[in-house]
Design goal:
The chain is of the alpha+beta class. The chain contains eleven helices and four strands; from the N terminus they run H-H-E-H-H-E-H-E-H-E-H-H-H-H-H.
Length: about 325
Amino acid sequence: MRAQFVMSEIGVGLRRNLTMTFAVIISVALSLALFGGSLLMSEQVSRMKGFWYDKANVSIYLCNKQDAQEAGEAAAKPDGSGGGAGGVATCRKGAVTDEQKKQIESELKQMSLVKSVAYESADEAYKHYQEQYGHTALASSITPDQMQESFRVKLKNPEKYKVVTSAFAGRDGIHTVDDQRQAIDDLFRILNYLNYAALGIMLIMLIVALLLIVNTVRVSAFSRRRETGIMRLVGASSFYIQVPFIMEAAFAGLIGALFACAMLVSGQYFVIDHGVGLRDKIQLIDFMGWGSVLAKLPYVLFIGLLMPSLAAFIALRKYLKV
């Protein structure tokens, strides 16, 4: 009997405040979808970091004959514009020698933080360049002798790239030391900013949803103040009076959470796997699978139930005093 009464009161409350209940559902759905999306974005960024940092190399480009010629011409200028350190300036003494290459490779292999060292000849560099940029107009003017030999260094800990840079940058025979991780860090910095922006919007939507829930409870309590007064007079406990209001808010929150889950699942299905198909179109990114998405849904549902229930409980402590 009591359960039937509670359910009937929930139905009455939802019908009386249908418009506000709908607004609560939409606000909760959007805020929780952003919450779940932020969790997935954080996991995706961490996943991408592990994927790309493992592939990031420190590239040591060696001086070739053209670099040495340009360095000599720059040094001969009266204004001294070729006097800068690094790059062409380090190639003034000529192209890299076989002895210098052997010494560089030997020192790299002796470093404890180096995982592997791969040598790339000028011909191999030219071949790779043609594979990537052969369709461009500039590629037709590039010759193999213009390409630089290099050592591709994979580190055990990519975050220690500065050790290699400081050890080899500016040495004779070395044109430049380039770390791919620096470019990757810029990308991840942008992704983190986007994630923070999503979290900020989520917090705003969450506040809006809480205010709507509190306001809905106020209106519902005010519209049924006569019934609650009678229940109080006949000896009903505060908890018994509050249960229908709390369950109304929890029901609206649960519906919003289900919509949020549907949006997350739809995003994975239509954007990542099918429809837009980012997984097939952008194969350079290791996108998350369904396991990661489904693991976030219980959190979304739990917060969807807990948040409105707590907001209603706090509001009722004040607005149900008769």
